Amino acid sequence: MINVIIEVSKYVMILLMAFYTFWNFSYFRLQEEERQKKICRYQNVDMFLLHLLGFLILYWKTGDDRMVMLYLAQLILFTAFIGLNRLFYPGGSRILVNNICMFLCIGFLVLSRLSLEKAIRQFVIVAAAAFTTLLVPLLINHVWQLVLIPWFYGIAGLLLLIMVWLVGNNSFGAQLSITVAGIAFQPSEFVKISFVFFVAAMFYRSRGWKSITAVTAMAAAHVIVLVLSRDLGSALIYFITYIAMLFVATSDVVLLLGGILSGCGASAAAYLLFSHVRTRVLAWMDPWSDIDNRGYQITQSLFAIGTGGWFGMGLYQGMPYKIPVVEKDFIFAAISEELGGIFAVCLILICAGCFLQFMMIASRMEALFYKLVAFGLGIEYMVQVFLTVGGVIRFIPSTGVTLPLISYGGSSVLSTFLLFEVIQGLYILKRNDEENEVEYDEERL
Predict the structure, then answer these.
(1) Are the C-beta atoms of residues 347 and 19 closer than 8 Å to each other?
(2) Is the dihedral of CA 260, 265, 268, 273 positive or negative?
(3) Cα dihedral sign for 360, 361, 364, 370?
(4) pLDDT for 93-126, tens place per residue?
């Protein structure tokens, strides 16, 4: 009987995910605020139903009472997070909050299926990150001096990356994290935010050749240190983000083409200099020739995706645990195998919807600093999603980066919360400015 329930439930979960995705894009074509709020309420109900159904399946399959406790704790967390955002920021973006919760919901479901212990640890980190970052939109709206300290962002971020390079912990051939008071964290996840603030503040002050040269030198230093640490996934995110921000700030096609060509040259150099880069490239080109060694991870990922098909195997019906490090950079394969290709495509579309909102906020900002911050953070987010999904489906070589808010990892979760809350702060800032303009025009009339 339980197998019948699981079989039916997977179609229900796909349907709920499809409706959520449809409402996610319907939101942007509506102008009336009340209709937008109505769609957000539909999304809330949808997400809570998906969350409940998923944990019912997990409990029926495991019989572990901790699943019930974890579900209830997450239910309280989601309710409190949504409620506090509406209480403190009534003018904030509701759909942004909804998408954060949906990503977390999917991540919790898959992590609980893979490892309950890791899911519990992830929950503790998420709860701490959710409530500590609630102040970020308030800071964005009231601390205008953020634009005055560009070199603080640049130098502090670079020093953190150098520290990781010199004394960082080695993980899969790369130096990614440092340990403080027994807690390991990955500074590159946080420096990518300070990096965007640095570039935005510098280009806000000046876009002359002297400023461009200084910013390019600092950006190159960030990327070089990451390359020396063999954190090539992060290096690629930083590089693409800088080139995109440089083009938006200057509208210079020559600089854009020069950046692209230098990136191609750097990629070729990395292939020649680093053995683990060659291993990943060779595994990407022909994983089947060495399926038991360098091609094992990607082939297992492709097997999982192929086995799941469009409708998935159902929770606890697949074998995602056969993929090495599946809970981190290959979690998209686990989602595809058990929840299905349609569910996975909907997830990508929701990520694209977040990126679309980031770009819409960037386009509406008048101050170049805020415009570049929103644009840069949006590029970082979408590039990270692309690198993760692209590596899992063998569209590009694997880069070892996580799927934001879904993969296991405390640093990734906290930095993504910071990113989303900065965007939320910019949204509120622009909305307040527009409301003040309306009030001023009404007073003049």
Answers:
(1) no
(2) negative
(3) negative
(4) 999 999 999 999 999 999 999 999 999 999 999 9
